[in-house]
Amino acid sequence: MKILFINPAISIEEPDAIWASSLKHNLFGKMSFIPRAAPMVLAAVTPPEYSFTYLDEDIDELHFDKVDADLIAITMMTVQAKRAYNLADEFRRRGYPVILGGIHASSCPDEAALHADAICVGEGENSWPVMLDDFAKGRLKKFYHAKDYPPVTKLSSPRVDIVNHDSYSVFPLQATKGCPYHCDFCCISFSSGHKYRTKPIEQVVAEIKELEKYNTGILKKRYNFNDDNLYVDKEYTIKLFKAIIPLNIQWMGMGSINTIQDEEVVKLMAQSGCRTYAIGFESISEENLQEAKKKNSSVAEYKKAAQVLIKHGIIPAGYFIFGFEHDDMDSFKRTIDFAIENRIINPYFNILTPFPGTQLYERIKDRIFDWNWSHYGSLKCVYQPATLSPEQLVAGSYGASREVARLDILKNHLKYFWSHGPWEKNPKLKFKDRLFLIILALKIWGKKEQRKFLLWAAFNSAATDTYQIVATVTFYDMAKRFVV
Ligand code: B12
Ligand code: SF4
C-alpha cells in the first residue's frame, strides 16, 4: 500500500504572500526554511508494510498524472487550508481516497470533512495507524478524534530519512509538547494541550545524532526546537541542555520570558549551543498582555531578558503582535524603538489573527470580515481592530518590519555582538568562511545591498559566526518584501 503525504504550498493560492515566497525561495535559491515535522512523525508510526512518500509543495512540483499512490494524506495549517482543499477535491475527482489532518483540520473538522474521506482531529500518533488499518479493511470512518494527547513514551522519534534535507536551512527538533498557559490568541489548547509532555532526554540526543548524519554541507546547519515553550519544567530543561552540550550543535528555539529569569539556565542554554532565542514578547503594552491573558509575561522584564541573552552570547529574537485593542498609531514606533534599543535582531511582527478554535476567535468573531483562510498567515488583517483601520494596521506592521531590518541597524547589532560578551572570545571567521561569504556575494550579484553586506562581513576582522551573517542578510531580504 502506497501513501503520498503532501504539505500544500501557500504560494499557489497566494503567490504574493510574504511567507509564501520566503518559503519557496530564499535569497540564495530554492530552499525552504524548515521541513514539516508532521510527516516525519507520522511516517515513524506507519506500519512497515506501507510505503510512505513525502511531497512538500514548497519544494517539489506536484504532477497529478504522475502520482503513484493508493492513499493521499494532506496536512494543513489554516493558511494552507484553501490549497489543501483544492488538492483534496482534485485527488478525489481522480478517484484517490484522501485523509486530512493538522491544526486546521482539528479546529474545523466539519468544514474539512466536505473535502476528504476521513479527518484526523488532534494529534495523529495514535489515530494514524488505526486509520490505516481501517482503510486497508475498507471501513474508513469520517472522523478520528485523538482521545488524549499521546503519553510521553509515545512521543515518536521522527523518520528523518523521508525528507531531502538539502532543500531546507535548518533541522526540526521537538523535546516537549504543550504549554500550561492560556494566551487567548494561541492554538495551544487543540494543537498540543496544556499538559507539558517531555520526551526522554536520551531520545532527543539520539534524534540529534541521527540528524547530524545529514549535516554535511560547508555551512553547518542549525537546529530549531519546534517546542511550543521550551522552558516550563526547569529540572527537565537543565538536564536537556546538559545532555546536548557534548553534541556540539548550534540551535535556535523559542519560549516565554520565563526562560530568561534564571541566569543559570541561560548559561547552560548557551553552552548547549543556543545561538538565537525567540521570546514571545507579543506586545510592549501591559494592557494588551492582560487582554490576551498572557499571564506569564511582564513588560518590565523585557529589557533585562534581552540583556541576559546577549550577555551569554545568545542573540535575542522575538515575536510581536500588532492589532490588540490597546494598540494605536504610536504602538508601531514604540515597538520599533524597543526592538532596536534592545538589539532584538530578528523581531517578527505579526498581525493579530483570530484562528478558529481560539478564545480570541470567540471574542472577536463578529468583527471578522475576511474568511479567506489563505489570509490567515498573520500578515493580513482579517477583522476590524478597535482603534486602527485594517489598512493602518497592515501598513504600520509592514513598516515596522522594514524599519528594524535596515542594513545600518543590522550591521550595528552584529558589530555590537562581535565585541561584547562571550562573542568576542568566539573564533573569528576563518579564511574558508570569508571565501564562502564572498562566493555567496557573487552568487547574488544583482542584489547590490545584500551583496555589499556580505562583502562587508567577509572583510571585517571582528566578524564571527557565518551562519548568523547569512541569516541576517536573509532577514533583510525578506523584510524588503513588506510593502503595502
Ligand atoms: C515550527 C512551527 C513553525 C515553523 C514550521 C512550520 C510547520 N508547520 O512546521 C515556521 C517557522 C516555518 C512556522 C511558520 C508559521 N507558523 Co507556525 N508553528 C510552528 C509550531 C511551533 C510547531 C509545529 C510543529 O512542528 N508541530 C509538531 C507537529 C508534529 O505537529 P502538527 O503539525 O500539528 O502535526 C500533528 C497533528 O496536527 C497531526 N497531523 C498533522 N498533519 C496531519 C496529516 C494527517 C493526514 C494526519 C492523519 C494527521 C496530521 O498529527 C501530527 C502528529 O501529532 C506550531 C505550534 C504547534 N504546537 O504546532 C506553530 C503553528 C503551527 N504556526 C502557526 C502559524 C500561524 C504560523 C504562520 C502562519 C504565521 C507566523 N507568522 O508564524 C507561519 C506560516 C508559514 C508556513 N506555511 O509554514 C500557528 C498555526 C495556527 C493555525 N491555526 O494555522 C501555530 C499552531 C502556532 C500557534 N500556537 O498558534 N511555524
Ligand atoms: S506561552 Fe506561548 S505557547 Fe504558551 S499559550 Fe502563551 S503563546 Fe501559546
Report on this model:
Helix 7 links the parallel strand 5 (118-121) and strand 6. This protein has 20 helices and 14 strands. The mean pLDDT is 93. The chain has helices at 10-13, 18-24, 37-44, 81-93, 103-107, 109-113, 124-136, 188-191, 201-212, 234-244, 263-271, 286-291, 302-311, 329-341, 359-364, 390-404, 407-418, 431-443, 448-458, 466-479, and strands at residues 2-7, 51-56, 71-75, 98-101, 118-121, 143-145, 170-173, 176-177, 197-198, 222-225, 251-255, 274-282, 315-322, 346-351. Helix 9 runs parallel beside helix 10 (234-244), helix 10 runs parallel beside helix 11 and helix 19 (448-458) packs antiparallel against helix 20. A 6-stranded parallel sheet has the order 2-1-3-4-5-6, with helices on both faces. The protein has a 6-stranded parallel sheet with strand order 7-10-11-12-13-14. A two-stranded antiparallel ribbon has the order 8-9. The chain folds into 3 domains: 2-145, Response regulator (Rossmann fold, 3-Layer(aba) Sandwich), CATH 3.40.50.2300; 169-404, Alpha-Beta Barrel (TIM Barrel); 428-479. Bound molecules: cobalamin (B12) and iron/sulfur cluster.
Topology of helices and strands:
Blueprint (H helix, E strand, L loop, with lengths): L1 E6 L2 H4 L4 H7 L12 H8 L6 E6 L14 E5 L5 H13 L4 E4 L1 H5 L1 H5 L4 E4 L2 H13 L6 E3 L24 E4 L2 E2 L10 H4 L5 E2 L2 H12 L9 E4 L8 H11 L6 E5 L7 H9 L2 E9 L3 H6 L10 H10 L3 E8 L6 H13 L4 E6 L7 H6 L25 H15 L2 H12 L12 H13 L4 H11 L7 H14 L5
Parallel strand pairs: 1-2, 1-3, 3-4, 4-5, 5-6, 7-10, 10-11, 11-12, 12-13, 13-14
Antiparallel strand pairs: 8-9
Helix pairs in contact: 9-10, 10-11, 14-16, 18-19, 19-20
The structure holds cobalamin and iron/sulfur cluster.
